[in-house]
Automatic annotation (TrEMBL):
Annotated family: Belongs to the class-I aminoacyl-tRNA synthetase family. Glutamate--tRNA ligase type 1 subfamily.
Provenance organism: Rhizobium sullae
Protein function: Catalyzes the attachment of glutamate to tRNA(Glu) in a two-step reaction: glutamate is first activated by ATP to form Glu-AMP and then transferred to the acceptor end of tRNA(Glu).
CDD domains assigned to the protein according to its UniProt record, in alphabetical order: GluRS_core
Protein name, UniProt field: Glutamate--tRNA ligase
Subcellular location: Cytoplasm
PROSITE patterns: AA_TRNA_LIGASE_I
TM region(s), chain numbering: none
Designated gene of the protein: gltX
Length: 485
């Protein structure tokens, strides 16, 4: 333990591209640890076995390292309270779940997914919040034993008090009270033997001696479940702090459907990590006008967790651009600037792969900027006329773009082979030739109908940049189609 005893953690799930919201929460925890002379820990929460992948875990670690955050314990550096990956801790949770069941605070539930879905449909139809109806709550010990012996799949759920409310003090929101009848009988252990997020979260925070849990405000409603688990296990809960969600300028929730949210998008466009951390860190400090440009040490000095805003953190891309420009102009020496440019161009083998694909397609080096420039542009500035040479009518182009976007999200391993396979499958499902599907994609991705090979280009650019370019292309083509009647 540290001299202060403070131990905080960031616990991302490796189920997608690392989100700027993860960096936002991680930075708060990092600053909190530095301010109190404590420890900052990284734990990978991969209880969702169907969506968690090694590729996404690597992206999480790489993204947080790019942000300049350093952890003293984690899956890559080890530590005294490991393992730091929940799938490697699967053997730990069973005894805690059984303790809850043995004390009468949990029960076996044999409800099938079909029954649960019908239950939720009926609740929605009656304008009731969907939650478990207690169908298996009072099964006898004999029936439970018989059904388990027969191999019938089951989960373990927690019991919830039937009266009163859960009262707790949040480090940001102060005193909070949530009625118990608003809390669901949460599944603690899934049928495959893996714990749910809620169960593993509590057990791991206890075993890793976490003193303060700082996370997004969307988890505020889960605190009663977590407090109950601590109580059922006879453990002392940590201090909870729930930070306001980052939002768009219109106050809507920051999401990839509206704006780029992946850290990899901002790295690809040439934002520098100090500027992004500076931008996010301003949500946690009180400063006077003119003091906006701040290093990590300066953020730590000004950091005051007792004086946080609950108004919401607005992700203002123009302010980020302004800060990034100031960092480039004011904080980087000429030599450092040149080093950053070269490092950025080489990221993910962008320059190397782009040159390799270009070599057989040019007759002189001066053609390289026109052929490969799209790999380095932050915005193609597409307008509807860019699609004029494509034989398909605008309606068909828009259909292709709108169909391709969600289908590409299904790809787990983002590489040339998986991209090609998915686009061929899209063409088959749409009943179109592959060349008809890829024609508008060439323009959407490169800004030109003559470019480097499409699948390779998409792989080089990365999932986040491709997502944004397809979205902007759809908007450009939609203006040709006009509004639906």
């Amino acid at each position: 333990m540290t001299a202060s005893g403070v131990r905080v953690r960031i616990a991302p799930s490796p189920t997608g591209e690392p989100h700027v919201g993860t960096a936002y929460i991680a930075l708060f925890n990092y600053l909190f640890a530095k301010k109190h002379g404590g420890e900052f820990i990284l734990r990978i929460e991969d209880t969702d076995a169907t969506r968690s992948t090694p590729e996404f875990e690597k992206k999480v670690l790489d993204a947080l390292k790019w942000c300049g955050l350093k952890w003293s314990e984690g899956p890559d550096v080890g530590g005294p309270y490991g393992p730091y990956r929940q799938s490697d801790r699967k053997h730990i949770y069973g005894e805690y779940v059984e303790k809850i069941v043995a004390a009468g605070h949990g029960f076996r539930c044999f409800c099938t997914p079909e029954r649960l879905e019908k239950m939720r449909e009926a609740q929605r139809a009656a304008n009731l919040p969907p939650k478990y109806d207690g169908h298996c709550l009072n099964l006898s010990a004999e029936e439970v034993s018989s059904r388990m012996t027969a191999g019938e799949p089951s989960v373990v759920r927690m019991k919830i008090p039937t009266e009163g409310s859960c009262k707790f003090t949040d480090g940001v929101y102060g005193d909070v009270e949530i009625p118990w009848d608003a809390v669901d009988m949460q599944v603690l252990l899934k049928a495959d033997g893996m714990p749910t997020y809620h169960m593993a979260n509590v057990v791991d925070d206890h075993l890793m001696k976490i003193t303060h849990v700082a996370r997004g405000e969307e988890w505020l409603a889960s605190v009663p479940k977590h407090i109950l688990i601590y109580r059922y296990l006879g453990l002392e809960p940590p201090v909870f702090m729930h930070l306001s969600l980052m939002r768009n300028a219109d106050k809507s929730k920051l999401s990839k459907r509206k704006n780029p949210t992946s850290i990899s998008y901002y790295t690809a466009l040439g934002y520098i990590p100090e500027a992004l951390m500076n931008f996010l860190g301003l949500f946690f400090v009180q400063i006077a006008e003119g003091e906006e440009l701040m290093t990590m040490d300066e953020l730590t000095e000004k950091f005051d967790p007792e004086n946080l805003s609950k108004a919401g953190a607005i992700f203002d891309i123009q302010k980020l651009d302004w800060l990034n420009g100031r960092w480039i102009r004011e904080k980087l020496s000429e030599e450092e600037f040149q080093h950053r440019v070269l490092h950025w161009a080489m990221e993910n083998d962008r320059l190397k792969a782009g040159l390799a694909l270009s070599q057989s397609r040019i007759s002189k080096l001066g053609e390289l900027p026109d052929l490969t420039g799209f790999l380095f542009k932050s915005d193609l500035n597409l307008d509807p006329s860019a699609f004029a040479k494509i034989k398909s009518p605008p309606e068909e182009i828009l259909e292709i773009l709108n169909t391709v976007q969600p289908d590409l999200e299904k790809i787990l391993e983002w590489n040339v082979e998986s991209i090609e396979a998915e686009l061929r499958a899209v063409a088959d499902r749409m009943g179109k030739k592959l060349k008809v599907v890829v024609a508008p994609l060439f323009v959407a991705i490169s800004g030109s109908s003559r470019s480097l090979p499409l699948f390779d280009s998409m792989a080089i650019l990365g999932r986040a940049v491709v997502r944004q370019r397809l979205k902007l292309a759809s908007q450009a083509v939609a203006s040709l189609v006009g509004p639906k009647n």
